[in-house]
Amino acid sequence: MVRLYTDDLSIGYGDRLIVKELSISIPDKKITTIIGANGCGKSTLLKTMTRIISQQSGAVLLDGENIAKQNTKDLASKMAILPQTPESVSGLTVGELVSYGRFPYQKGLGRLTKEDYDVIEWALDVTGTTEFKYRSVDALSGGQRQRVWIAMALAQETEIIFLDEPTTYLDLAHQLEVLNLLQKLNEEQERTIIMVLHDLNQAARFADYIIALKDGEIVKAGNCEDVMTAEVLEKVFAIDAHIGIDPRTNKPMCVTYDLLKGAEK
């Protein structure tokens, strides 16, 4: 089943076209990762699919409706995004930050209801951040802060969550912590997860569907076995990759690689 897709989407900055007539479908209730070299259009695509920036042509459709024509609060109740480098107002407590996720549901004076507080407590609990509720966000470690931002996204109660490089600046343990949480949300609550990842083996390990981009165009899209091949990685990253099998997941993994001689991205 597909609820979210793009139709001939072109995105650019000024005269420079970043994404070119891109048509993709996002599998519902699955984890999709987008991979590609720096500057290929990954983050630009995510920002356009969540209406942070506008496209030059084409459309992003959710449940058959163009998101450009949807009410902002209505759209925010359907999809949430965690940017690459989220910034909060200095001095906010964790509880205050997570409460911002209730914005789409607030009416009148914007006061939180009992239902809002219940959802906030649930989001803190499921992300393991309840103990930080009254602590300043500024005082948290990178991994803790990332989990708090995910809690805020969960407080929006959206069925679709976008994340732009959610493991950036985190050590290996915290990277795994965040990705395990996202996998749990997908499996137990059927959240549709779309994220940009730089680590190919993490993408293969956690994704049901991978989209490989180069210069704003799809090189290959499909399951891990379809995309994590030496041929695809050569086209996308200009590398000579040796692909093996992860002994714990039985999914393909990039064991090692070399730069292709004379290759240009």
From TrEMBL:
Name of this chain's protein: Iron-enterobactin transporter ATP-binding protein
PANTHER family: IRON(3+)-HYDROXAMATE IMPORT ATP-BINDING PROTEIN FHUC (PTHR42771:SF4)
Compartment list: Cell membrane
CDD domains: ABC_Iron-Siderophores_B12_Hemin
Record's keyword terms, sorted: ATP-binding, Cell membrane, Ion transport, Iron, Iron transport, Membrane, Nucleotide-binding, Transport
GO cellular component, one term: plasma membrane
ABC transporter domain residues: 4-240
Residue stretches spanning the membrane: none
Pfam families named among the record's database cross-references: ABC_tran
Cited InterPro entries: AAA+_ATPase, ABC_transporter-like_ATP-bd, ABC_transporter-like_CS, P-loop_NTPase, Siderophore_ABC-ATPase
Organism in which the protein naturally occurs: Viridibacillus arvi
GO terms of molecular function: ATP binding; ATP hydrolysis activity
